[in-house]
């Protein structure tokens, strides 16, 4: 394989990673697929590109393609690629958990707003908060109602600390 083709594949690979990290998953898939097509399947670089391609497929909501590619990568000659493919296949095939609606935050689509509308201020409804109790005076507790039976451990600990300190002082002389 010529070095020119490898350099083109590396530049596509870097472009795919950059697109993925910027949230442009379709563009990342395109670049990574092109880089993968240029490389020999059994090389370390091809395995690395295809692992990134698996994550790009999943991010682009093409889970079936991601799982199929992971199945192939489990038989890759490079050991690290095999290991990553085995770990990813478990993640991809794990059941999807459903989240309650109150855990989710809706993000409005701002692409449909015209320039004139975007200049308006949007009022945000604050979430209900728990009212805080602000007391200027300290709260006093009746000591006759406090359970002091469990405090015997404190006396034992204080005696042990006192004996240890006196023993250390005695050793220093």
UniProtKB/TrEMBL annotation:
Membrane: present as a keyword of the record?
Answer: yes
Which keywords, in A-to-Z order, does the entry hold? Membrane, TPR repeat, Transmembrane, Transmembrane helix
Q: Where, in residue numbers, are the TPR repeats?
A: 9-42
**Where are its TM segments located?**
153-171
Q: What is this protein called?
A: Tetratricopeptide repeat protein
Q: Which domain of life is it from?
A: Bacteria
Which organism is the protein's source?
Anabaena lutea FACHB-196
